[in-house]
């Protein structure tokens, strides 16, 4: 994990590695076929995990800044599985324990109004 992610994720209650199986066996088939939607399904699963965590009073943070090859090796993730991301899950701590460069980032992110993201009708 890169230094930026490690500086605060090291205190998370859980670190999750997001993987997906890149093939599947269709009902009635005997051979594996490419699972062309594995990344879509995995992204959806991550999104719902984040929503459920938030509803349960937890916070999540997805991270791409980690060594995927080392992760595959250390966790014995077999071929045929893609390694996508890491997720830190935990409760908010006191921001004063963070390095100065991270304390300044602990503010709500600006959000676009819904009207800029969705439309109705024509």
UniProtKB/TrEMBL annotation:
Domain Nitroreductase: 11-91
Classification via InterPro entries: Nitroreductase (IPR029479), Nitroreductase-like (IPR000415)
Protein name: Nitroreductase
Matches recorded under Gene3D superfamilies: NADH Oxidase
Native organism: Pseudomonas syringae pv. aptata
Gene Ontology molecular function terms on file: oxidoreductase activity
Lineage: superkingdom: Bacteria
Annotated segments matching region Disordered: 100-122
